[in-house]
Design goal:
Order of helices and strands: EEHEHEHEHEHEEHEHH
Number of strands: 9
Radius of gyration: 17 Å
Distance between the termini: 22 Å
Strand content: 15-25%
Largest sheet: 9 strands, mixed
Amino acid sequence: MANGQPSNRMTLSSRIALIGIPLDDHSSFLKGAAQAPPLIRKAFHSDSSNDWTELGFNLGTEDVIYDAGDLKFTPTANVFAEIEQTIESLLESSLPVVSLGGDHSITYPIIKAFRKKYSRLSILHFDAHPDLYDELGGNRFSHASPFARICEAGLADRLVQIGIRALTCHQREQADRFGVEIHEMKDWRGAMDLQFATPVYLSIDMDCLDPAFAPGVSHHEPGGLSTREVIQQIHAIQAPIVGADIVEFNPVRDVMDMTAMTAAKLLKEVAGQILRNANTTSPPHFTDELAET
């Protein structure tokens, strides 16, 4: 289960669960993302900012966020199984769960846990890369492959990808095979009005951002989104957000904590949008789905 110093205990006023997953075993280029969770927390609680989201929610009062600390893997662990079990346990609280990675491989076991709770689920994925490789370097569970595994297993009703600018021929074929909706950066014209007929899970790879905004990533892919553009797209989501992950922040490459602060800002705005959408009346097509959970 999780290990660390949680900021608070789960209470009746808790609205969101937070968990750190310090894993970078499946990174193909550089290690370092496993160091990210405590640094994102540090930035999140930094006195250089405050606890208010742009949407008007104060995340620093009334134990809004239950912080479960960082997952500590047992020796000789099946790490994916432990991630899945930990997320499944947190979801029993009926709180949305936000995970701090870690590399992007963690999204596969996370979604396996979510799919057990939600019979219908859409994923909105921010990334420079589609992460649809069947395998990379012989590793089918690489951080470049989680969405291939998710799609193969039928774990998402819909997968929408934003910020993509490093597509290969193979990954285009995979996207066609699985019916993935890819919005490439070359076609970007601003935040889109994406309509979802299911609850939504957000997966945010920090390299969706241009390296000018987030230098602390393993794979620098120029020509990406600005921080404001990502926030605008998050704010545009109208469906219930039941979970999220923020992954691929690599502190080894960060400059003056820029990427840590950006990751913390995105965490803040994701939390705000979760709370905002939970406070609005769900459209009729969500009523039965959310009642099942």
